[in-house]
Design a protein that fits this description.
The protein contains seven helices and four strands, in the order ααβααββααβα. By secondary structure, the chain is α+β, with helices and mostly antiparallel strands. The chain has one domain (44-200): Trna Endonuclease, Chain: A, domain 1. Helix 2 packs across helix 7. The model is unreliable at 1-7 (pLDDT under 50).
Length: 203
Amino acid sequence: MAFTGGLTNGMSAADFQMYCNLEQYLSGPAAPMATVQKLPFFSVNEFNFFLRLQAAHPDAIVLSQVQLIRILNVDVSLLIANWNAQGQGPGFPNIKGQISDINLLSLDFVLLTKTGKVFYVIELDGPEHLLDAAVMKDWVRLQAAPITTPQDKKIIERVNAWQRDKIKESAVQSCGLPFERFKNTDIGSVNEDALHQRISSRL
């Protein structure tokens, strides 16, 4: 890549020098990035469930970690209004921020027909996605107290994760797509036939 023009489009001498420096850097050998490392695409539970989904629905295309905006056109302001009208959750103050970030959310599994039509959405939940009375009690306490410990941060992150899950569920169901949650602990007890029947019964 070579820059052959002069100082155009109002580019100052300093900007031009910065551009040249960047061009020289990019055209050189790639520098190793010690902070970047490969990660497995699936967790063990996710991969096992993925294989079972494929076996249960061999005629379907099974996708994983699909961004919500790939299958939905979300009216964020309307979703906020619907959420508030339904009284979802204990009135989280960060609900608007959570919904505004909906474009960043992903769905664990999306099933497509052979023609590419989405027909089913599945979320696989671990214990970190569930709330109990103790977590909610701590969350309420933290609304009036500073967050000072790693445990406090975990409580907030857990409630935020639950909230994001509910937002995804609400968005998917609002457009009429079947949506279902499976617990990690259920994977071992659900065989392919039972999984096929469970999904087919919702179609």
